[in-house]
Amino acid sequence: MNSIRVEKKFTTGQSLQIVQGDITAEEVDAIVNAANKHLAHGGGVAWAISKKGGPKIQEESDAWVRKHGPVSHAHPAWTSGGTLPAKYVIHAVGPVWINGRDDEEQNLQDAVTGSLQAADELKCKTISMPAISTGIFGFPKDLAATIIIKTIQNYFEQNTSSNLKQARIVLFDQPTIDVFLNVWKTVFE
Ligand code: AR6
């Protein structure tokens, strides 16, 4: 079962949580997928989402790419949630970590902001997001934790009347949870 580890309530009524568990079980309006630009959901959390949500997710993803081309960092794709509890899957494309050779930090920030904007446009009140880029894409976990937490905080501070009221960062493995909770302390405590 997914459990809340920490929560920050902003004065605007919006809230941010770190949750331990499986994002495919999240009963929220939208979950974020850590996708690649071709939306080929073959591994990691993408595979788990696609498998649990049924074939509709890959079919709708393929249709999106046929219509719009490869997905950019700042403008995620979205599909239905298929048979998942979540209504939508927002397919965010994080950066592949290549050791500072590209604009990876900005690209991760863009992927997070783009996901929150897409959720808002879809009139979602609740969103759950994994640790984008920190698995197969190799982004350092502590740097990703700082960017993901601060980007969500900034989004709420800059969009105080957003449709979106709650963001949950859902983390699967213990090393990632430990890193995010440490970064959380430096940001909020
Ligand atoms: N719930 C929550 N988090 C999960 C789950 C789950 N069920 N399963 C894994 N994670 P990754 P990336 C965590 O590799 O680095 C795919 O092939 C995992 O422990 O899924 O952005 C895509 O199609 C890690 O902390 O995403 C892309 O090609 C985090 O999710 C590529 O991988 C992200 O790991 C994207 O790589």
Please summarize what this structure is.
With 189 residues, this protein is of the alpha/beta class.
Strand order of the largest sheet: 1-2-7-6-3-5-4
Radius of gyration: 15 Å
The hetero compounds bound to this protein are: ligand AR6
Helix content percent band = 25-40%
Gross CATH architecture: 3-Layer(aba) Sandwich
Query: What is the class in the CATH system?
Result: Alpha Beta
CATH domain topology = Leucine Aminopeptidase, subunit E, domain 1
**Largest sheet features:** 7 strands, mixed
Mean pLDDT: 97
The CATH superfamily title: Leucine Aminopeptidase, subunit E, domain 1
Strand content: 15-25%
What form results from the Cα inertia axes? globular
How many distinct beta strands? 7
H and E string: EEEHHEEHEHEH
Structural class: alpha/beta
Q: Which oligomeric form is depicted?
A: single chain
- Overall tally of structural domains: 1
Low-confidence stretches: none
**Total number of helices:** 5
Span of the ends, CA to CA: 27 Å
